[in-house]
Write a structure and sequence with these properties.
This protein is α/β, with parallel strands linked by helices. It has 4 helices and 8 strands; from the N terminus they run H-E-H-E-H-E-E-E-H-E-E-E. The termini are far apart. It binds fe (ii) ion (FE2). The site of fe (ii) ion (FE2) has 3 residues, from loops.
Length: 166
């Protein structure tokens, strides 16, 4: 005799677990400038650029004029630019609060943070926010993290999770 709750649990599992994260969309105040910073900070290669958009995209993102996909391993960042968007913090739209990338070792975490500081100091990029990265914090489970902003003011977290390390 099958347990009816089992079927319900399976359905719930299938419908609530997302498949892998494919890309994140980032609104850039200056697409060329953002692309330069993302390539210097994350590495990766631009894959394609779009300059014509569907009616749906144009209605979701009025003024969109260019979108470039940057490939980071099996993840992608879709950087796009909209007419009239300016470098300011006065808007307060609902958005993802931060996005976290896991790194493979504490050393890599320190290197990533140092790289952010070095890029900021280079003066090659214009940042919406002047805030430096946070210190690296360690929680009770040994997870180490720091937070930093991209050139547009979006927050990223980098974490070293010992239990998930290879
Ligand atoms: Fe987080």
């Amino acid at each position: 005799v099958s347990d009816p709750a089992e079927g319900i649990r399976n359905v719930a599992t299938r419908s609530t677990l997302p498949s892998r994260l494919h890309h994140v969309g980032v609104q850039a105040y200056d697409l060329a400038g953002s692309l330069a910073w993302y390539r210097e900070f994350f590495g990766g290669e631009p894959n394609w650029t779009l300059e014509t958009f569907s009616e749906l995209t144009r209605s979701r993102l009025p003024g969109i004029r260019r979108l470039t996909e940057l490939v980071l391993g099996d993840f992608r960042i879709h950087l796009f630019e909209r007419a009239g968007a300016t470098l300011s913090q006065d808007a307060d739209p609902v958005q993802f609060q931060h996005l976290c990338f896991a790194v493979g070792s504490p050393g890599e975490l320190r290197d990533r943070r140092a790289h952010w500081i070095e890029l900021f100091a280079s003066g090659r990029h214009r940042f919406a926010r002047p805030d430096p990265p946070t210190e690296i914090v360690v929680d009770d489970h040994g997870v180490q993290s720091f937070y930093c902003y991209d050139v547009n003011g979006l927050e990223f977290e980098f974490s070293y999770l010992p239990e998930e390390a290879p």
